[in-house]
Amino acid sequence: MAMNKQTKPESPIVWQPSNAAEACTLKQQLGEDGVFVAGGTLLRTWWEAGTARMPGHLIDISGISSMQTPITLASSSHDRQICQIGAAALLSEVRNDSYISTHYSLLTTAMKNIAAPSIRNLATLGGNVLSRVGDALPALIVYEAMLLWHDGQGAFEQPLAEWLLEAQANHAWKNRLLLAIILSPVDLSKQEGKYRLDVYHKVGRREVFTPSIATVAISAVVSAERHIVDMRLAVGGGQTMPKRLEHAERLLKGSKLDHSLLQTCYTSVLEHFHPVGDVFASESYRQKTAANLIVSELWKVMQLK
């Protein structure tokens, strides 16, 4: 497929590949002048703000059938269902899916807090993930999501958390196509004497793409004696790449909830969460907001009878 990459039209040339392999081939040929696009909502925001240049070529992946299916379920080795969400699934589709809301409630809540309805009807989950600061990421990190990529040769999986770390230093992923987000089964069975805590919080304005001050996702299991059986914490916000708070998790897991533990957790968040500050909210303010959100939820669990 011959093309002149030096041509810079006023409006991008739009390519419509029929499958993932063809899309990756186009990207390899076009290089940095070719950009994958599905909903395009975030890209348009970047172009209008001047934070990214408009490329000469757009590779429209919205017509690839394997990426259009919002939710696919498959059985795991433990007779539970693995959930695969197409990268081109609309945020509104993910939000309204009954299986997602039942088994992955944090993700449903995250979808409700992203932009306005008109944007959610155009924007895709894949785009939110690939922005590396999307509000869906803390929830997906807590669920230990996997990413399904296609590199032109074939498909392969990669842990979301691993990709986020890799993407900071290595931009090779931009030549790959994100096909889907994979969620492992979540054990929602009611266990006698145990309380399950699943909470997602976003502090900040929701409209359009206004960055949040702090975004927190918590998934925990607590015994009747207030011992923390399991704990997963993830935090992000603004232009900060979300991360899992592994140090705080280690402090909390196996410990009994009391005021001393809450103070220790608060201090850990301040020490290990380093958000990007801006003119609207400083690093310190974002740190304290995230720490307060986490500790307040744990305090509520302490009050349960």
UniProtKB/TrEMBL annotation:
Gene3D superfamilies cross-referenced by the UniProt entry: 3.30.465.10, CO dehydrogenase flavoprotein, C-terminal domain, Uridine Diphospho-n-acetylenolpyruvylglucosamine Reductase, domain 2
Membrane spanning residue stretches: none
Keywords annotated in UniProt: FAD, Flavoprotein, Oxidoreductase
Protein's UniProt name: FAD-binding PCMH-type domain-containing protein
Domain of life: Bacteria
Gene Ontology MF, one: FAD binding
Coiled coil (UniProt feature): none
SUPFAM superfamilies in UniProt: CO dehydrogenase flavoprotein C-terminal domain-like, FAD-binding/transporter-associated domain-like
Alphabetical list of PANTHER family matching this protein: XANTHINE DEHYDROGENASE SUBUNIT C-RELATED (PTHR42659:SF2)
Domain called FAD-binding PCMH-type: residue spans: 7-188
